[in-house]
């Protein structure tokens, strides 16, 4: 970015002349981050980096239990019969029973304690079965549903809400640092630490513009 020009009026022996000075980009200072803020940003970046390099996290069969109702409406509803059978074999008999139990309990809880901000609302139909009432924002296809599910689970992971995950293995590991981000932050810190200065200022602190002013009368000699 090119320096911005600033015009300053200078009075010399009753004559006013205008001299243009360039403002240095370093004059725009950014507030320094607190140590606590830096730690939070580092941790969040490392968790995001972990997910970017471990996509298998989202395919874990146990992840369904994190939010059985969301999984039911975002993923399970779009699965084919063969896909559900394959998922059942991966979970095992006990895993399938556990998921069904969690889903049923979650529906009962949602029916008894409706959350208007939740993805789904539930009611009992004529047969007494608990069924979902869809909202407009509920995905209508498999791809959209999976994207929504991954986003929900990503935000959950970044918040630190996965109680089964050992976050220390990520939060305290430099392996998941993004070197590009670190370099940019170091560059910003360098500019923040630099003293503001005018472009063209010499070692003595006198600017080239000041030197040009010295000795001038404003009268041209011919």
Automatic annotation (TrEMBL):
Q: Which residues form a coiled coil?
A: none
Which intervals of the chain are annotated as region Disordered? Answer: 1-43, 168-222
Give me the stretches of Acidic residues compositional bias: 183-195
CCD97-like C-terminal domain location is: 133-194
Pfam families from the entry?
CCD97-like_C
InterPro entries reported for this sequence: CCD97-like_C (IPR040233), Ccdc97-like (IPR018613)
Bias type Polar residues, positions: 1-25, 204-222
Per its record, how is this protein called by name?
CCD97-like C-terminal domain-containing protein
What is this organism's lineage? Eukaryota, Fungi, Dikarya, Ascomycota, Pezizomycotina
